[in-house]
Amino acid sequence: MTALIPLVVMLPLIGAAGALIAGKRRQLQVIVTVVALAAVMVVSVFLLIEVDRTGALVMEVGGWAAPIGIVLVVDRLAALMLIVSAAVLLAVLLFSVGQGMADGDGETPVSIYHPTYMVLAAGVFNAFIAGDLFNLYIGFEILLVASYVLLTMGGTGPRIRAGVTYIVVSLVSSLLFLASIAMIYGALGTVNIAQISVRMAEINPSVQLTLHAMLLLAFGIKAAIFPLSFWLPDSYPTAPAPVTAVFAGLLTKVGVYAIIRTETILFPGNALGEVLLVAAFLTMIVGILGAVAQADIKRLLSFTLVSHIGYMIFGIAMGTIAGLSATIFYIVHHIIVQTTLFLTAGLIERQGGSTSINRLGGLLTAAPMIAVLYFIPALNLGGIPPFSGFLGKLALFNAGAAQPSWLIYAVMGAGALTSLLTLYALARVWNMAFWRPADEVENYESRLLDQLTEAPDNTDTEGKNSPKLMVAATAGMVALGVGLTIFAGPLYALSSRAGENLNGPGNYIDLVFPEGVE
Amino acid sequence: MLTALIVFVVASILAPVLTGWLGTRVFYLLTLVPVVGMVESIRRASAVLDGITVRESYSWIPQIGLALGVRLDVLSWVMSLIVLGVGALVLVYCARYFPATEPALGRFAGTFIAFAGAMYGLVVADDIFLLFIFWEATTVFSYLLIGHYTDRKASRGAALQALLVTTAGGLTMLVGLVLIAVDAGTPSLTGIVRDPPGGALASTAIFLILVGALSKSALVPFHFWLPAAMAAPTPVSAYLHAAAMVKAGVFLVAALAPGFADIPGWRETLVFVGVFTMLVGGWRAIKQQDLKLLLAYGTVSQLGFLTVIVGFGTRDAALAGLSLIIAHALFKSALFLVVGVIDHRAGTRDLRKLSGFGKRSPALAVIATVAVISMVGLPPAFGFVAKEAVFTAFLDSGTAVGLVALVGVAVGSVFTVAYSARFLWGAFASKPDTPQTEVADERPGILTSPGILAGGGLALGLVAPLVGDALSGYSHGFPSAAGQEDYHLALWHGLEPALVISVATMVLGIAMFLLRDRVLRAQSLVPSWVNAANGYWKAMRFIDRTAARVTARTQRGSLSFYLGVILLVMVLAVGATLTLDQPWPTEFIWWDFSGQIAIAVIMAVAAIAAVRASKRFTAVVLVGVTGYGMAALFALQGAPDLAFTQVLVETVTLVAFVLVLRRLPQRIGVAHPSHARGWLRATLAIGVGVTMALVAVLALGSRIADPISLDLASIAYEGGHGANVVNVTLVDIRGWDTMGELSVIIVAATGVASLIFLDRRIDDQPRPARVSGRKGFLLRQRPVTEPARPRGHELGDDEEEETRLAWLLAGRTLAPENRSILLEVTVRLLFHSIIVVSLFVLFSGHNAPGGGFAGGLVAGMALVARYLAGGRYELGAAVTIDAGKLLGSGLVLAVGAALVPLFFGADALTSTWFEAELWALGHVEFVTSTVFDAGVYLIIIGLMLDVLRSLGGEVDRQQEEDDPDTPNERMPKPADEKVNP
Amino acid sequence: MSATLILVILMAIMYASGVYLMLERSMTRVVLGFLLVGNATNILILVMGGRRGLAPIVGDGSSVDEFNDPLPQAFILTAIVITFGVSAFLLALIYRSWRLSQADELQDDPEDLAIAERDAAVEEELRHPDARDTEVDHLDELLAARELGDKGEQE
Description:
Structural class of chain B: mainly alpha
Distance between the termini of chain C: 87 Å
Oligomer: heterotrimer
Strand content of chain C: under 5%
Radius of gyration of chain B: 44 Å
């Protein structure tokens, strides 16, 4: 069974190699990449089942025993992340294939897009299974460099501009991460996560705090925690819809995932819990205010992305099993829903010719399907019951109420306010873009208007504008999001089992070093 | 009950489809859905009325105490009958109300049924979180229903307003629910009420919940959303804003009252808010001209009334409250439906335009009158019974609060009488000075629903005692007032104070109506002291403004600002930890060997100079110096592999830099805005440097355990069969890292190509090969040998013939002034030998400095030389295989080396080792990890190729595009042909 | 263990210079800064590997414990190559933006600037309360709703 673990990284890489060798033969590339990701999906299903049964799987790459060799660790959390991201990556790939078949390669040149996308996937998966800090760094590098390429793809002015911001900030965070690894090696003489956890406990607590702070900063930038988050809303929206969607869904979550590992294994004891609580508070509020200030749907969504990172940090900062379980559930929910909304934004852009709510209108009559595909995930993100967004928030609040403190109550209040303002921002989009009739829109320059004028009763315009595959992929994601509610019982049970795994570093260490390590 | 809910869900999904087939007749069909629920309730009637609580419960998410728990006790039983009964009747009404041509009817039907279902769920839910789910569901559906006429600004705005106000309350309530559930240890509503938790936390929670309830039931200061919500179609108003949704808050108060009515502040708050709302609503209802709006404010007033009595929390009050809920649901929805008919037939709801309507449709007038009788509380209507009970409950309470409540509702009732009279008069009376209204024909059967509702109000009054007994199940949840027996509902209690009060209110009310002109004038003098709508408006403006302001402050859109913030945070945070009592090392080593000093000084100087350099090339070279300095350090520190690789990388980087910078101006951007804050940046930069230094010293100083790498050497030698520990580590022990690193290189290379080759859309003829940037040079080199040859012709066997023909390609491609035959020849001669060297470096790497990286870079240098000497055509001639394929196959080798062992049951990347005595070569050793290294080699070459092709060749070409007459490379002209030997 | 101070100081200087350059607006400077910071980080790793030692190549009589720690060397090698790939990409980026805008300066995000302008407009509005925020159209929906709440539908 452990043999399956490295596959989740190698399959996408083979897919990338295949896509490169396939050159510009689109069909072949599509087949190779889709098959590869589907295979990862299957593998991660097996992994999840196995891991949930046995607790966790550990693999020593190349048969080199830890701590010298690199270990790959899949516990419930990692398996859950693997399967969710595999699903999201696959859906987005299908979406982009549909888009590419519609627009040709102008937006996403296959021989660039497909290999890079697969490498990105490999990086994400590697980051989830890395049991070695330096390998985690490698995983980050893979997905980051791939994201640089995807973000600047097409080389248009705005993308270059946004790309520079994104790339330079990410480079800084990577170098900070690498530096932290160096420091940790200097202090402990190891990079194996489990062994770090063992040795870290033995050195002076103040030194621990210093290293802890450095590592959190590196991950905080990636996870877009206030005030390290300003780069995100400037960089994501300019990319092609599928790229933005997968970035929004996955990349920040990898950062959050790393923070979870940091707080539970490397530096247990929640030394910086209160700092994180404050960060969570500010991330929520400042982020959502940014969303309210936006008129452009993509940017608005990017800001909601930032602010909802706050919820996850909240759960981590509480440092309790309940909090972690809630966070895990919330991450799963947010990966799926945020991605869905960006895909829908892509559909809206094709349909309405713009993503600015001041220039959109009449979409409800023109594209009822898109309306549904927007409304449901919007409510979901806004935390409206019974959707998973609400369940996650409820779980977080429960965890918070379980350990009362004025700071936690404050963050809970901020959480409630954030979800209200999220709803406000998203409902505003609904009012303006979907309800408001097209003829009320000033300077309404989009394909929609002439369609309506030449055929006022033609409601099948979306057939023309949104290729079946794109709509299907989005609809699939929406269904997945609703599924989170329907199967919330078992899913939450799994999340809390995963949360219990993170109860102190003991479990993790025993996994990697069954007979102990000094 | 859960089955009934499922029926609702299914019906709401099917409704749009069915509407497509049946048109307005669909509503008759949908009427069956609430009826299903009613049957369910009625089936349980006997049990419930005997005081048994019927429960159903399924576990959903036990970890957070979320269960599908529903129950039916007297309160929820009554509520369910109201909600479903009125719902059914309104659906019947809809079938006649809407014209067949009504747009978006399917959407409406679906939403309406969904709302009814949510409302039903709300009243039967026992798990408070499930209750909240339905609570918010009603909010969302009402949003959709209020905004039904999407083409009207007002209705869209009203919908958003209702959504936000009620959700704001709802979220406050959610926090309260979470707190109370944790405090009580159970999420079950009945459980919480049975043994309510005490203490400050519990009371706080309860008040948070009350905020939600009050906002939902449109009490001051949240009342303003209800009148605005009249933008909805009339059936919606009749259902949501009379019978169902606005009752949710009252219902919640009623449900909590048995447990919490006695916590400090509860009674006072509810009485005050309720009375205030009742007065404000009534006061404003009196002056309305729009009948529907008059009813809306009337509803606000009545909701205040309900809250006072329901929250009062004595046994008699409970009985009175529940009766009043029933009465109000019946008469108010009836009246809304009546207004709907008037609106349709007269085409207006403005009582200044209506006249003589009563004569035209007596039936309608009768129905309205009957409903109004119940509203003002005249016998024998049930409204009268309820109101009597209310007055008595307050009288008997004998508390100050009770007295305040009594006076308040008495005055409120005066207003009620006044606006009710005004309603009847305005709708039906013939006004002398107004022309008779033109009245369209009545749709047959549209009077059924209002008739039943109004009649119901009357009928219940006649059987009041029976109703009283039925409701006692709820009121007995409260302690009975000391020393007096329970109140019983009846039409006639004899001449008691309550009756007197009723008569008094009646008289005063009529008086107010008769003097309406004076009253109106008086009102116009009084400023509208409660204008919460303005408050809301201001709040929204405030939010938008704050949002804009905060965002403008934080989101500067400038990279240097973002970087600055990040680094500042780092310096502050890490610096803060450094101020703690850290175990600073005591003894230091200044240097390991004197050479270090020299190198360090040179590098430091170069680095600082690079900061100050104003010419691009200067800066680049200076940075290069630090790079070579690194190499020297590595060499002396005992890291030959690093030194070797560093030198190569540094050189290649320099070349790449030069290739790009030749297009940019010499000087680097001078005098840009951020110069002003130069000192700031300097401080920050120094801060970062110092912090890193301190942490480094600290970290290394606190090393206590041995590094894991101690036995790396032996492991590498025995296990990895290589003497060069670093190389074995890279390709074998930590090969997994290297594999990742390779994929980084691959995307980087792809990215370079993507950025340089991707302006294809400005190209006139489609070049598919160019879209990806791959193979571009194959096309471009073709004209070199035979310009006449048609494009698109694939390179085939004549490849070597070409190279033979054009042994020195640059001969015809490079402008004479840029040529150096000698250089080209030498490079040509050296090329293959360098490649051989690179191969040697690759294979020897396992035991000596070198390896895939170094080898690949050496080969790369060879390509660089070819390009620099002979330009892009020379490069094309040097390598005829597509860079993408190189990268791809390299990756295949590397991943393959990782993958294959899996098939032999070993872990990924496991290496094996062969040695053999080959007759020719003698003793030969081979480690499979060499295959991996070969992959590395190929990928590095691919990267180099991409860099040269893009930053070199393609940039040349684009330069020629930009200005054709640059004396650089250009397409061969016929003239060049002669130059060629 | 204690660090070799001269290397630490060198590292600090290179970090400082690199950061200073990265905070500039000229892309060329930013990239150069990145290279400096990258080198500084490699020095850091080297320092963390402990003091100078022999080349970690088994054989030729050198004893294993005199080796310079090979693990950091492996890390540095990886870092060098990654940095190389990234900087190649950055160079392409410089060229691309130069070709687009003929400028090496980094531009600020237009959307953000727009928000800032709008904020200024709102500040202006504070002085003239009756003027409406031009950007956010939805507010006049609310206005209409309020009207309706007060006076009913005017047809």
